[in-house]
Known about the structure:
The structure holds 2 protein chains of 2 kinds. By secondary structure, chain A is mainly α.
Amino acid sequence: MRAVFYYFERDLVKWLRGKVTVISSLVMPAAWLVFVGLALPTKFTDNYLEFITPGILVMTMLFSSLQGGSLMIFDKILGFLNKFLAMPSPRESILYGKILFISVRGMMQATVIFLMATVFGVRILNPVHIFLIYLTLFMFSVFFSALSTMIGLYLSDHDSYSAVNSMISMPLFFTSSALMPYDVMPSWLRILAKLNPVSYAIDSIRTIFEGGIPVQGLVGLAIGAGIMVLLGTYQFRKAFV
Amino acid sequence: MIEIRKLSRSFGNLVAVDNLDLDVENEIFGLLGPNGAGKSTTVMMLTTLLKPSSGTAKVCGYDIVKESKKVRSKISYVPQDMAVDRKLTGRENVQLYAKLYGIPDRNSKVEEVLEMMGLSDRANDLVATYSGGMRRRLELSQALVHEPEVLFLDEPTLGLDVSGRKKIWEHIRMLKAEGMTIFMTTHYLEEAEKYCNRVAIIDKGRIAVVGSPENLVSAIGKDASLNDVFLENVKTPEEQAGFNSTQFRNLLRRR
């Protein structure tokens, strides 16, 4: 399983060397925090920034996980995947390496948001809560990066991948509890939001911000992430391209 | 080294490889044929990337379906895409493969293959600055880092200039001299004639003819070349469709 780390290292070094990609991935979530968190005139809460920070954290993870599937697409169309699949190291380690890289990259972005939110006056929590937030974000990211990598392995060109990506990412975000609490939602949206795995992660992080421990949310995300990883492992083992 | 028995693969209605029987010994073996003849499909089955529809094949004594992992530990595969990471240096590209293969004395092995492929002095440069020939040699370095018994090369000299092609062939010969079996596909018949020990020409997934280039050529006649053998055995799509060039020329003239 050391191969997982080597695949991870490859993607990380390549990402860090593309300076534009690093800067853009850190600026996008910051822009959300400032332009939506500080600017939106809301009435249901005195401190909208504190309300929306968990939403932005999860949104960042969601978008970067879903976008991460394009790594798989490029490895596939450029011929890297065939070379990797012809090697004796377990094929699923390609998937695990991708999940690890996408999640670590997402957590680096989340850290930037965390720091900025703290500067803007969101309460600082104790280390246990910070750990729990990162754990939630990580499991959430595993779920969606496994999904996006599986879609990437299944599809064969980048255009259809970005089509699938935009088709699922925006609806998932806007039907979640990221931007408003359930009690101000129209009832049709409330039903969708309750079913949405994205709200699951957001609600868990809100509970942690309020000082609680969302056992149900953490267990749910762990099960979801576990199922995705199992499905992905199966798909990669069977990968006769 | 490679035993192929009644190997077939179809994609829907299209039969890409049709009941292929072939034995490859310790040699440089060239698989020739027109575009779409089933060369790459054959290579992908032998490298365990594609499941055969029927039939079997063994590489180094291991079944390509049932013992695919053992096959993968004995072979290296260089596809035709030139897949090397542009944002990594030459050395980092080879090191990745050494790590993935779990080579014990990693660093010295990496230096050894870079030296062998003549890339040592540029090993610290990003691959983005490499020429096509250097990228190809870098791919060979990656493939050689775990000392495979069989090396599969898909169009290794495609898109390279004359000196780049010559260099690649010299390296292939050297590897053969060290005991490696090389199984390759190519469209450059002059090169195959000069460097391959044996070649097979396949057309529509079937072997048309197999043997050493000298024997195949002399069977056709004096002053023939492998090109003549190829044209003799392969029907072009135009011929197949009953394309009449005289008629076509007359048609154009009339307009």
